[in-house]
Amino acid sequence: MANVRQYNNLVTASEVITQSFTNQATDQALISNEIITIAELAHIKPYLGLDMYEELKTQNHNSTLTTANSDLVTHYLKPALCWYVRFEVMNEIQYNTTSAGLVVNTSDFSSPANVEQFNQMKNDTFRKAQVLLDDMIAYITHEDQTNDYPLYGKDGDYSTPNDGDLAKKMNGIIFYSKNLKEQQPKIWKAGGNIRGNEAFLLWGRARDGQDTEAIREWIKERESWAKRHFRDGQKFKGDVEPNLSNVAGVVAQIKWRVLGNLGERGMKDVILELTKKLEGRKDNMTNQITETSKKGLENKVKEHNEEIKDLDLDWNGRVTYNKLAKVFERGIGAYKTNPESVRPNVQSPEQWAFARVNSFLFVMRKGRFQGGQHDTDLLPKDHPMKKAMDDAENQKVRRNPDCPDGYEHQMPDGSYMCGKEHGGGGYGNYDEKKILDFLNIMKEDLITQIKLIKK
Predict the structure, then answer these.
(1) Which of 386, 347, 352 minimizes the C-alpha distance to 369?
(2) Are residues 308 and 415 in the same domain?
(3) Residue 375, pLDDT score
(4) What is the pLDDT at residue 386?
């Protein structure tokens, strides 16, 4: 790995202020080279991959950018990076560390934003940066640039997930996990134990390009862990509400940066529900629905139920106000806690929430989603999407005379295991080494749990 930390940053403080700050008189001293470096490492490098990032840094420092790389840096990378730098520097602008501790910066002619206003501004800043970054990735991967960026997505000797939608989801989980650790420490401590916390640190180091034996071993371990814990959020596909005693599996998945069977949105919805409960907002969420929004939801219920009366559906397509209100509330929460998922033309939480409601009404009428799946726990049991999900969860079963009961079922990774269902079959011709390795892993997990109990 080349030492590109010695090279110039990809943007300057002056460029950051020009492209992302309303106040062009902002003091450039607030935007240090270290902050810009942090923004590059946290938000640009993981998407480009180590090899392409090093190439751009080297060429930019030596003023030898190729035509293709110059176009990319000037028109796509710099605009996105400027907004990410603004996102990273906002804490420095709002707060100051003194001998008396952390204090809020104030002015004789204005008052600082409160915590909620500040967080909304940070979320909106990140959303804008993500919009520009998505545009950059779309440009790099477009067929017109097929041969221009051969190093895109390459990470030296080993690779972490970095392809298409999965890459975006994984980076969304990375950002989300950092926020969760800082803003909801109670939830963060609810799962993942000691090794989970180590996984959180090791993943960050791996994404920063560090290549050590410990990181290599952890990457292998993560693959095994992901297979064993893929279904850890299964209970939340039903009516189970999350609390600090049952959310451990989802928290652990977030620490390990693993997308389980809930998917990215499902995992975040679980954490959002628990956050509202812990903050005392769970029972008062209706206060977030204004009278105007309430009337809009009531009209949608009436119009939808009237429309489906003449449709010959094989499922119960009716909706209630309470069901749509729940979808709406989740949309509000997603807008505030998951800004990277919000489209650039959306101007308010309510607009995003109503878009989610419209998407839910579509699947209730048509039996399929227009885009990504969401709120599947609110679908009726006889809905075709619900049945399809149940079939996927039940997994494929086939005959195998070598298994004790004559059957084997498909695991999430595509391999097969004896038994009609997970945990119900045992092995016929088994690999003794694999069994011993599995038992050793279980032993280590048990030892960790015992240590935690003793503490």
Answers:
(1) 386
(2) no
(3) 84
(4) 74
* Domain shared by 295 and 415, yes or no: no
- The total of other beta-carbon atoms located within 10 Å of residue 434's CB is 10
Give the residues of the chain that fall short of pLDDT 50: 157-171, 283-286, 423-430
pLDDT computed for residue 401 by the predictor: 65
Q: Is the pTM of this model over 0.70?
A: no
Is residue 242 in some structural domain? no
Helix/strand/coil (H, E, C) string of the chain? CCCHHHCCCCCCHHHHHHHHCCCCCCCHHHCCHHHHHHHHHHHHHHHHCHHHHHHHHHHHHHCCCCHHHHHHHHHHHHHHHHHHHHHHHHHHHHEEEECCEEEECCCCCCCCCCHHHHHHHHHHHHHHHHHHHHHHHHHHHCHHHCCCCCCCCCCCCCCCCCCHHHHHHHHHHHHHHHHHHHHCHHHHCCCCHHHHHHHHHHHHHHHCCCCCHHHHHHHHHHHHHHHHCCCCCHHHHCCCCCCCCCCHHHHHHHHHCCCCCCHHHHHHHHHHHHHHHHCCCHHHHHHHCCHHHHHHHHHHHHHHHHHHHHCCCCCCCCCCHHHHHHHHHHHHHHHHHCHHHCCCCCCCHHHHHHHHHHHHHHHHHHCCCCCCCCCHHHCCCCCHHHHHHHHHHHCCEEECCCCCCCEEEECCCCCEEEECCCCCECCCCCCHHHHHHHHHHHHHHHHHHHHHHHC
Longest dimension (CA), the chain: 82
What pLDDT is stored for residue 289 in this prediction?
A: 83
131, 156, 181 — which closes off a domain? 156
409 located within any domain: yes
Domain identity same for 358 and 439: no
Domain count, the chain: 3
Residue 23, CA distances (Å) to 36, 116, 180 in order = 19, 21, 31
pLDDT for 281 equals 56
- Residues 216-255 as b or e (16 or more Cβ within 10 Å = b): eebeeebeebbeebbbbbebbbeeeebeeebbbbbbbbbb
Per-residue pLDDT, 414: 58
For residue 229, the model assigns a pLDDT of 83
User: Which pLDDT belongs to residue 437?
Assistant: 65
Structural domain of 297: 282-393
pLDDT of residue 163: 40
